[in-house]
Amino acid sequence: MLTSRMFLKRTRAGAVVKVVREHYLRDDIPCGAAACRLCPPRPAGPGLGLQAQPSGAASSLCPGPHYLLPDTNLLLHQIDILEDPVIKNVIVLQTVLQEVRNRSAPVYKRIRDVIANPEKHFYSFTNEHHRETYIQQEQGETSNDRNDRAIRVAVKWYNEHLKEIEDEEKIQVIFLTNDRTNKEKALEEGITAYTCEEYIKSLIANPDLVDRLACVSDEGKEIESGKIIFPEHIPLSKLQQGIKSGIYLQGTYRASRDNYLEATVWVHGDAEENKEIIIQGLKHLNRAVHEDIVAVELLAKDEWVAPSSVVLQDEGQNEDDIANEEEKENILKTSVNKDMLRPTGKVVGIIKRNWRPFCGMLSKSQIKEARRHLFTPADRRIPRIRIETRQADTLEGQRIIVAIDGWPRNSRYPNGHFVKNLGTAGDKETETEVLLLEHDVPHQPFSQGVLSFLPKMPWSITEQDMKYREDLRNLCVCSVDPPGCTDIDDALHCRELENGNIEVGVHIADVSHFIRPGNALDEESAKRGTTVYLCEKRIDMVPELLSSNLCSLRSNVDRLAFSCIWEMNHKAEILKTRFTKSIINSKASLTYAEAQMRIDSATMNDDITTSLRRLNKLAKILKKKRIDNGALTLSSPEVRFHMDSETHDPIDLQTKELKETNSMVEEFMLLANVSVAQKIYDEFPEFALLRKHPAPPPSNYDILVKAAKSKNLEVKTDSAKALAESLDKAESPAFPYLNTLLRILTTRCMMQAVYFCSGMDNDFHHYGLASPIYTHFTSPIRRYADIIVHRLLAVAVGADSTYPELTDKHKLADMCKNLNYRHKMAQYAQRASVAFHTQLFFKSKGVVNEDAYILFVRKNAVVVLIPKYGLEGTVFFEEKGKPTPKLDYNNEVPSLTVEDTTLHVFDKVKVNIMLDASNIQHQKIRMVLVEPKILGSDVPANLPTEISSKNEPEKKKKKLQK
Amino acid sequence: MAAPELLSDEGYRADGRRPAELRKVRARMGVFAQADGSAYIEQGNTKALAVVYGPHEMRGSRSKALPDRALVNCQYSMATFSTGERRRRPHGDRQAGELALHLKQTFEAAILTHLYPRSQIDIYVQILQADGGNYCACVNAATLAVMDAGIPMRDYVCACSAGLAEDTPLADRSPEEAAGGPRLVLALLPASGQIALLQLSARLHQERLEAALEAAGQACRALHAVLDRVVRDRLREVTALLGD
């Protein structure tokens, strides 16, 4: 049967056109019930369909066998409940799925996963194309009403259809909706309908599910309680109009980490001015949450403010304490220089929420037996969330996950519901889990489906593998890596040729040989994007068999490799480059220290050592060339923990030491990456995967220039080369660490390097390396980008064939987006892991005094760096319950005067470090200035490390930031 | 907003068809009495009319006549009311010229032109309502019209388009599906499996070509069955008239 859908559409030019679409109605769509013999058999699709004998949880409301049928809003809000293993046999209508798809991509993905899960017995019924359940939109009916009616029609049809099945027990379909009018209408039509709450509460065996109900109150309920705090959000249609006409600006909302009353909105598009808008004050923030897409209205110029340098944390235990807030807002409005004012605005509406489940802890309400509690997320940029739970006692002190359901206008905090308990806070496993979840790192063990694509053991190289491969087993190849490295993905060789030139080869593990495009293993690695290294744990991108065995270029075994071989003269000029798939047999796996020892040793003269010396010599020339070209040598303090081998607790902490051999390996890897980038770009100008590092905007350097000026040094920032040179010159004989500090500051000014697809961009320059083109080729075991580059290169040298996704630049661009995101998150996770272990370290160490340097000066605090541990921390001068010392902040220098002591950037100070465990969720490293001594502070200058054992100083109630 | 889904997980396209299913086809032969042959076809909402004159002596410049076979002359046009927005299409339309040329090539391959040397066959097609697959509808209508005119052909020429939703080929693309992705148009002589015309727009990876081609071929064969029934019905009708 055929019908047509007709609707009006506005074209881009603004004309209104009538669009007619065909809409076919079918009579062969199965109802999905296993017992049904009236419908044609179910074709192979996702999931298993509905059970003949529904085996869900028993409900006191409907004791008979039944299927559930939720409506759109219920599915959107209560997805957590539906995902619970107790809920089975649910019919998801196409109408519902389509609405969900348009409204929330993450929920759509989740419900799709549930439908595909054979244990859940969810069935998606294509009601819009079924002859008996399709309805047409009536005159004057909104599309929402039509969809609601379509859902009810489907429920009715199901009930009648299931009655026709010859079976002793009639199965009922129960309609779940939270919409009051919809439920009333359904009951009128003779449909059994319940709200989600009614149904879940009726489940006999599972009372704990109630906690996971999202509390979406009806509109009517809200008016009862309290006054309205927030202005109303403007509806989407008006926002879009406003954005088009330029009244509003659309952008991504980014809450400030340090100050809960401030946020910035990054405006989308290429507009030069008003790129970054500041939002200040609770009312202006207007219920936006970090990462939401919002519409912003600019304030008049005289209301503009400067970004505050105050650090403020939301501490109010007493909810809805608004008077207090206003007072705090006033703190922000200090008089500032005219030129510091930035575009300021207020949030007028939300275009898209980007809520995800948040990790954090419960702050139990002080009222006993209360059911409403506040939840404090681990991420400081997320506001606290009010949840309702009866198990507060058990949840206290645990890390839990909570999802936001909504944020009514009269509520200081958003409402949410409990999702999952992760374990006791402070536990190493729980905390690791939290930081992986918070950084969206996929860390589940590899599924059977993924593992099935691994090569069968015992594995050996076959004739087939030898095709297109060169046998390089006779070469004297060796690898140099950090100690304890099991995923060795690069090895080197170097030999003199007969014509006097030198042949240098970089051999990279041939991971793309094992991971074939399109299979589950490939998809999983693409999703993970990168291996994440935490302090005591590694989250692999590819299964261990590959990462630590078959792909790892260990010594004295035959391994497949992808080789990049150059012929160079003694001035390290490349005469010839070639790429080939190969077989190698590494002669030695060395650590950096071992390699260094061999180079330095006077007695060793074997093949490996001579080739190492040759490589080292070439590397030095290469490095010099690179630096002459304007490559930057930057510095960031990196720490390494010495772990206790049994408890895995950190025992000692030291900054990473760099040896000459580190730079030797690095130099050849850079060279290989550049050569490969050039090759794949020449071969595939449209879809080469490259990496670029954009030059930072000049304003980024402001802090650096000011800081250097305060030490009477000049830093030129007009080009990378000028910057590199002026950094080299910036030495102070009295202050040898200054140069490192400057380089650390410079690192902070840089932009993030990103992957991109050459067909989608035209700026390829890599600023930091001063290379016109660059890519990642050398670490395919731990980076997915390298696997793609390997595949491209394999096609370029004729060793492999392409596949559809590889030559699709849009797909490639999407992949780059994911890879960039994963890389960023992996970095954050790494830092968080270091921070956590630093805390563990100081917990066992107690209180210490250390030398430190001031990196940044803020309005009420200074950020210091402790070179000994590579640790950065903030020293505050305001304390709760104590008179605030007189603070005078000078933005020009910048400097901060506390009472009589003036602090400048780069000042050497002494700080007292200890762990503040008063807030178990945010255990912090607390730092207090010891030298220069500030009046009124009560920290003893000479605190012996030993006396201050764990418990006494931690009792001090102080809210300080790490 | 998410881009529209071409193929749902349940295996239905946006308009309710399965991947290999055609849109509804309705056709009639002999719609005009004055022309030598004529036909009308509906494929979904696309409606096309084809009229054939000839074979007849060369009109206009006789110098164009071919000594060994007939000249096939094609003209393609779209009615001003054929699209959502009324638009006049002058004859010089580039797209129309291209389509006419394709039609000409297709039918030169199908008609036994060597039977009529030094003569001319005119095929005029017009799109009355455009809703995707214009070329295909024209070819199918013209086939019926040529048959109606009684001009001998090697075989039916059936044309159908195919697109791709990720990996699944979709037969007979609707305009919704035409929004993105590669498109393949195939004109096939179903009995012999010979290809009269194959057109590919946008890049398509080699590995997928075969699947898409197979889907288009299947669709052409399905169309052939429909057209064949139309021709036989028409024949029965005409013979019944003559028989009296």
Strand order of the largest sheet of chain B: 1-2-3-5-4
Q: Into which percent range does the helicity of residues of chain A fall?
A: 25-40%
How many DSSP H or I helices of chain A? 25
Give the CA-CA distance, first to last residue of chain A: 67 Å
Strand content of chain B: 25-35%
Number of helices of chain B: 3
Silhouette of chain A: globular
Largest interface: A-B, 34 and 27 residues
The counted number of beta strands of chain A is 37
> What name does the CATH topology of chain B carry?
Ribosomal Protein S5, domain 2
Keywords:
heterodimer; A: 962 residues; alpha+beta; Rossmann fold; OB fold (Dihydrolipoamide Acetyltransferase, E2P); 4 domains; five-stranded mixed beta barrel; 37 strands; 28% helix; disordered C terminus; B: 244 residues; four-stranded antiparallel beta sheet; 29% helix; globular; RNA-binding (chain B); nucleus (chain B)
Topology, please?
The complex is a heterodimer of chains A (962) and B (244).
Chain A: E1 2-10, E2 16-24, E3 66-70, H1 72-77, H2 79-82, E4 90-93, H3 94-103, H4 105-116, E5 122-125, H5 143-163, E6 172-176, H6 180-188, E7 193-194, H7 196-202, H8 219-222, H9 236-245, E8 248-255, E9 262-267, E10 276-280, H10 282-285, E11 293-298, H11 322-332, E12 344-352, E13 358-363, E14 372-377, E15 385-388, H12 392-395, E16 398-406, E17 415-424, H13 428-438, H14 448-451, H15 463-466, E18 469-471, E19 477-481, E20 490-496, E21 502-509, H16 520-528, E22 532-533, E23 538-539, H17 544-550, E24 558-568, E25 574-591, H18 592-600, H19 607-628, E26 639-643, E27 650-655, H20 660-683, E28 689-692, H21 702-710, H22 720-729, H23 738-749, E29 754-757, H24 784-796, H25 809-845, E30 848-857, E31 861-866, E32 871-876, E33 887-890, E34 895-898, E35 901-904, E36 908-916, E37 924-931
Parallel strand pairs in A: 3-6, 4-5, 6-7, 10-12, 15-17, 18-25, 19-25
Antiparallel strand pairs in A: 1-2, 8-9, 8-11, 9-10, 11-12, 13-14, 13-16, 14-15, 16-17, 20-21, 21-24, 22-23, 24-25, 26-27, 28-29, 30-31, 30-36, 31-32, 33-34, 34-35, 36-37
Helix pairs in contact in A: 3-4, 13-25, 19-20, 20-24, 21-23
Chain B: E1 25-29, E2 37-43, E3 46-57, E4 71-78, H1 94-110, E5 119-129, H2 134-148, E6 158-165, E7 168-171, E8 183-189, E9 194-201, H3 206-243
Parallel strand pairs in B: 4-5
Antiparallel strand pairs in B: 1-2, 2-3, 3-5, 6-7, 6-8, 8-9
